[in-house]
Write a structure and sequence with these properties.
By secondary structure, the protein is α+β, with helices and mostly antiparallel strands. The chain has a domain of 165 residues: Sortase (Sortase, Chain: A), CATH 2.40.260.10. The protein has 3 helices and 12 strands, in the order E-E-H-H-E-E-H-E-E-E-E-E-E-E-E. It has an 8-stranded mixed beta barrel. A two-stranded antiparallel ribbon has the order 1-2. The radius of gyration is 34 Å and the shape is elongated.
Length: 242
């Protein structure tokens, strides 16, 4: 085999078996040892690895909160919807229970302007809101002649049912479908924000049949509450001003 040399001539290596490049001695053979990480270098090395592990764990936790929790909520919603159409399409029941069991199916909420269509459960404790939007047990029911229906929902976790609540506007329609009838509401003002402390006044009962939706604000925080209010309507129009 002929290889080009630096001066442009060719060297026939096949004819020069003695022209073999000697192997360089390894550090160990030369009596040189590899430097070891000691002291602060070792500490910095493992601190960096630990920091990366913590960052990866935190990122995984955030991903689970924002998306993973929705998987369990979706399963719960699918279960709550079983046989729902056949229930609401039959003749509404004449009487309703005073208090449905916590976590049980309560109603279906539909808000076309933000594409919301989910099952509402009874209760607003943490286990209840993991299943979907929840009805405040101390507020009125949609089929009552007076009072305010209160419904809360997560905004960024557990399928974030009220994520786009701030996109609702005055005049939008909200429908609650129940085993005791279907009830339409008209939003009577644009959404507004109140501090978390003292926000309970939005659940005060009204003479007319009304509705209030509540969620955390701003997104990914909870020191405020975003509020939407609406009044129930019938064939003649708005029942009251709330």
């Amino acid at each position: 085999m002929r290889l080009p040399m630096a001066d442009g001539t060719l060297d026939d290596m096949s004819e020069s078996p003695a022209a073999v490049v000697p192997a360089l001695p390894t550090p160990a053979a030369a009596g040189v040892s590899r430097p070891r990480r000691t002291g602060w270098r070792l500490v910095a090395h493992w601190t960096g690895i630990l920091s990366l592990m913590l960052a990866a764990g935190f990122a995984g936790y955030v991903a689970w909160l924002l998306w993973g929790t929705g998987l369990s909520t979706q399963r719960s919603q699918d279960h709550l919807r079983q046989d729902w159409q056949s229930v609401v399409n039959t003749k509404p029941r004449a009487t309703a229970p005073k208090l449905a069991p916590l976590g049980s199916r309560y109603a279906e909420i539909q808000v076309p302007s933000i594409g919301l269509d989910m099952m509402v459960v009874q209760g607003t404790d943490y286990p209840d809101l993991k299943l979907g939007p929840g009805h405040y047990v101390d507020t009125a029911n949609p089929w009552d002649d007076t009072g305010r229906v209160g419904i809360a929902g997560h905004r960024t976790t557990y399928l974030h049912p009220f994520f786009s609540l701030d996109h609702i506007h005055a005049g939008d329609t909200i429908t609650l479908r129940t085993e005791y009838g279907t009830f339409d509401y008209r939003v009577n003002r644009d959404p507004f924000v109140v501090p978390e402390s003292g926000s309970g006044f939005v659940l005060d009962q009204t003479v007319q049949p009304t509705l209030v939706l509540t969620t955390c604000n701003p997104k990914y925080s909870s020191y405020q509450r975003l509020i939407v209010t609406a009044v129930r309507v019938d064939a003649q129009g708005v029942v009251g001003n709330g």
